[in-house]
Amino acid sequence: MTATFEHARPAACPACVGAPAAEHLADLPKQARVMLSLPGIHCAACISGVERTLMAVPGVMDARVNLTLRRAAVEAGADITAEDLSAVLARAGYEAHELDPGVLAMTEADRQGRDLMMRLAVAFFAMMNVMLLSVAVWSGADGVTRDMMHWISAAIAIPAVIFCGRPFYASAWGALRGGRLNMDVPISLAIGLAVGTSLYETIHSGHHAYFDAAIMLCFFLLAGRYLDHRTRASARSAAQELAALEVPRATRLTDAGEAVVSVADLAPGDIVRVKPGGRIPVDGVVTAGTSELDRALMTGESLPVYAGPGHAVSAGEVNLTGPLTVEVRAAGRDTALHRIADLVAVAEAGRNNYTSLADQAAKLYAPGVHILSFLAAVGWYLYTQDLRIALNIAAAVLIITCPCALGLAVPAVTTAASGRLFRKGLLIKDGTALERLAEADTVVFDKTGTLTTGTPEAVDLSVIPRAHAPVALALAAASSHPLAEALARGLRDRGVTPAAVADITEKAGYGVEGIWQGQAVRLGRAGWTGAKDSPETATYLRVGDTAPLAIAFTDTLREGAAELVASLRAQGKRVMMISGDSRTAVDRFAARIGIDEAVAEALPEQKVAAVQAIAEAGGKVLMVGDGLNDTAALAAAHVSISPASALDAARSASDMVLMGRSLSPVADAITTAGSAGRRIRENFTIATVYNVLAVPLAVVGLCSPLIAALAMSASSLTVSLNAIRLK
Length: 727
Prior knowledge:
Elements: E1 31-37, H1 44-55, E2 60-66, E3 71-77, H2 82-91, E4 97-99, H3 101-104, H4 111-138, H5 143-164, H6 166-177, H7 184-203, H8 211-232, H9 238-245, E5 249-254, E6 257-262, E7 271-274, E8 283-288, E9 291-294, E10 305-307, E11 312-313, E12 318-319, E13 324-330, H10 336-351, H11 357-384, H12 387-400, H13 404-423, E14 426-428, H14 433-439, E15 442-445, H15 447-451, E16 452-458, H16 469-477, H17 482-493, E17 502-507, E18 511-516, E19 519-524, H18 526-529, E20 538-543, E21 549-557, H19 561-570, E22 574-578, H20 583-593, E23 597-599, H21 604-616, E24 621-624, H22 628-636, E25 639-643, H23 648-653, E26 656-658, H24 664-699, H25 705-724
Helix pairs in contact: 4-5, 4-8, 5-7, 5-8, 6-7, 7-8, 7-12, 8-13, 8-25, 9-10, 10-22, 11-12, 12-24, 12-25, 13-24, 13-25, 14-24, 16-17, 21-22, 24-25
C-alpha cells in the first residue's frame, strides 16, 4: 500500500465570496476576515454545526456559512489564523481550507444580469403606459387631444428608450468603430428612426407617432438579451478560481525560528514547514519528515502517495498525516499550479473564438437589412419627393426586419433546453454549450472522480482468513485512511466484529500496528509488513509470523457510467479515457467499463495536448472530468462537463455541471442538444419566412412602423412558442 491511514482530504477551490458579516463589525479594531472553503457540507445541520463550532472559538466575532457555495466567512481577531479555524473544524468533523478573499472578490458580482433586468423592467413599464395612451389615438382622438397623447407618449418613451437601449447602442458603436456590422447596428438605427420620425410628426401635429413601436422593440430585444445572459450567468473564469486556490501564506524556517510570510516573499532555497492537513504552498523537495500527499488535485491519482526526504512536492497538494519540511524550488507564479492556471486562461480564450449560429446569421443579416432599408428610402424619396414618407418607409423596413426573432431564436431554445436538463440533473452554464455538444464526435473521460466515485472498495474480502478478519477490522477501524475505511466498512457488512487488539498505534507514512494474543499485528504498506509491492492498489495484513496478506482494492464505479459508455459507443462516438492514475489501474478499469482507448499517467499538460491533437485532426471533443489536472483540458475541449463533486475550478471551466451522482444525464444532454439544434434551425426558418413575407409589404408602403412592430412581435412570440416545445 502506498499510504498510511489518515483520511485523504481533497483540496477545495472557491466559487464566490460567502455571505457578508454584519456591517458594524467592519469598524472593530484588529479584525480580519477569513474565508474558508467547506467542501464536505451538504445540509442545514452542517450550517448550524459549522457556525456553532466557529462561534465557540475565542476571538471569533461572526461566522456565516453559505451552503450553496460551501463557503464560510469568518470575522475574527487579527491573531486568529485560517489554520487555527481549519483545525477546530477538522476536530469537529468538518473539512476546511483557506481561501484568498482578494482573488475571490473579482468574481463576486453579477452586475450585468442586474443591469439587464432593471432595463427590462423599465422598458415593460414604459411600453404598457405608452400602449395605453396609443389606444386613445387608435380610437379616433384628433386635434389637440391627439397631440397631447403624442407628447405624453414622447415624455415617457424617449427617456425610456435612451436608458433601456444603452446595451444595443454601446454594442453598435463598438462595432462601427471597429469597421464592422453586427445585429445591434440595425436595432439601434431602427429605434433611432422610429423615435426621430415620431418626434418630428408630434412637433408638426402629424397623425401618426410610433413611440410604442420603439419601446416595444427595446422590450423584446432586452428579453432576448436577458434570456441569453441567464444561460451564462454561472460561468466564471476558471483561471481566477485556480488563482484563489493558491496558498497565500507559508511558514518559513529561519535561524531565528518560524515566521509566517507571504508566499510571494519566498525564494528558491528557503525552507518551509507544512502541517498535517495543510496544502503545500510551493513546488519543492522534502528535506525532513514523512507523510502522505493527496495528489488527486494535480495528477488524478486515486490514492494518497508516500512523501519523505528527497521526494518532490507541488503547490496545491494536500499534506495528510505528518509534518513536512520542504525546500522551495519554485513559488508564486513559477509553480506548477500557476502554470495550469495559465493553460486554462489560454484554453478559455480559444473557446471564446467559437461562433454561434446567431452570430453567423448576423454576418449576412445586418448588411442586408441596411442595404434594403436605404434602397427603400431612396426609392420612395425619388418617387414622392417627400422626405417624411421616405423616412417612415425606411423606419418600417428596419423595424419589420429587426432581428428580434433571430435574437430570440437561440436563447429561447437554450433556456427551454436548460430547464429540461436541469430537471434531469444537469446545469448548463454557457449559451453555446448545446450547439457545441451536438457537434461532439469524441468523448474523453477522466477516471478517478468522474467514471468512479473516488471511493475504494475491497475486491475480495474472502481472501482474509476467518480468524484474522476481526484483527483486520480492529486495525482498520483505528484509522480514517480511505483504504482502512473501505476495509472496515466491508468487514462490518459481512458481520465481522473487531478483535481485542492492544496498544494500537499509527506510524506516519507506514500503517497501523498493535498486539493481539501476544503477537504483533500490522496493517499498512507492503515494505513495512514484509511484503513485496504489488502493481495493484492494496493494503497488507500481517499477523505474527504468518506471511503478509495482500487485500486488493478498486474504485467504486459511478452510477450510470457503464450504461453511458455503452450508449455513446452505440451512437458511433469515439470514447477515450485519459487518467493520471497508474497504467495497471487504468487498463484494468478500461477493460471493466468497456473503453478501448485509454491513456495512463497523464499530466495536466498531456491531457490538454491530447484534446488539442484530436481537435487538430478535425474531431470535436466532449471532455468529462473533475480535478485540477483536468481543468485545462476541460477549458480546451469543444464542450465540457463536470460532476457536482468536482473541484470548483473544474466546474468553473466546464460548460455543464452534473448536479447528482449519476452520469446518465449526459446521454440525455446529447439527445437534447440534437433536438435543440433542430429547434434553433426551425426558428431561423420561421424568422426567414416572416421576413420574406413581411418585408415586401413594408417596402411598398403597406406597413406603418406600428404595424411593423406588431408583426415583429408576432414573429418573436412564434419563435418563443416553438422553443417551448423542447420542454
